[in-house]
Amino acid sequence: MGNLNLEFIKKRRQELNLSLQEMAESLGFKNASTYMKYEDGTYSFKANHLPILANKLEAKIEDFFIENFAEIAILENEVSKEVI
After folding, report:
1. What whole-number distance in Å separates Cα of residue 81 and Cα of residue 68?
2. What are phi and psi of 32, to 5 degrees?
3. Does the residue 36 lie in any domain?
């Protein structure tokens, strides 16, 4: 599951003073280093991780994609102008 706003996920975790280990445990990982690999993009979060992340980070799943949705909307608007 690419295109997640990993910067948002990391920033939000830090804002809530959640440790890497806390996040790892909430997702069922054994240690913080495994979670860190997801947060830094080495591994990709899976769809079933998103509700857990949203709950733990006190966010909406959409927050993980907000920049991508804006980019898609801009591109769709440009394409529809070209068609007209």
Report:
1. 20
2. -65, -35
3. yes
**How far apart are the C-alpha atoms of 51 and 71, rounded to whole Å?**
23
Residue pointed to by tokens 């948002």: 8
Q: How far is Cα 68 from Cα 5, in angstroms, rounded to an integer? A: 8
Q: How far is CA 79 from the centre of its chain?
A: 27
Compute the radius of gyration of the chain from its Cα atoms.
15
Give the pLDDT confidence of 18-66 residue by residue, as tens digits.
Answer: 999 999 999 999 999 999 999 999 999 999 999 999 999 999 998 898 6
CATH, residue 52: 1.10.260.40
Record the pTM. Answer: 0.75
